[in-house]
Amino acid sequence: MDNSIYKAYEDEIQSLEEEIKLLTEKYEDSQQESTSFSDEQILMSIKSLETEFQGESEGRESPSDLKAQLESLERGLSFLMKFTGIQFTSHSKKTVEKTQNRTVQKHRLLGNCHSLSFQLEFQLLEIQNKENVSAVITDLSIIMESGEDSDMSKFVSSTEERGNLLAFFRSLSCYAEWYEHRRSTFLHFK
């Protein structure tokens, strides 16, 4: 009878160890996830960092230099958004697999280009060799609201097959700009 009690305790200990392992993995995944922040949250973070840097400026760049760099980066980003019409509204990243020389991350991007909304989901596979790092996009999924245009849906399908994000954003920028022109022209004649 004592053996059956020990067996029950051992089974309970094993199930608790498995539960701890699962909870630990869940916790690590949640710590690695990136969340999207609003513009106000980003500005508050920048301001808090500025106040921290004001007290710790020894041996580092001065806060005014950092502020000038930040303003320069913001101007560059603003220029690119105006030039391309592409604006990202949300981004999340989750590490799916990580080994010594291989990392797989799942990304999700939400945004709009002029008046067209888009959503991208893809996995980024990074393989690190001795000298360099190569990155490959896999499992690309693109969701767009302009489903009535068959040419655009064909383009989206071929882009998903090839996994070429650069071609997608270039074409999206041009297409969305002309889509906006066509829409405003048709509204003018109505």
UniProtKB/TrEMBL annotation:
One of its GO terms (cellular component) is chromosome, centromeric region. Residues 6-33 form a coiled coil. GO terms for biological process: CENP-A containing chromatin assembly. It comes from the Eukaryota. This is CENPP protein. Keywords: Coiled coil. InterPro entries: CENP-P. Signal peptide: none annotated. It holds the Pfam family CENP-P.
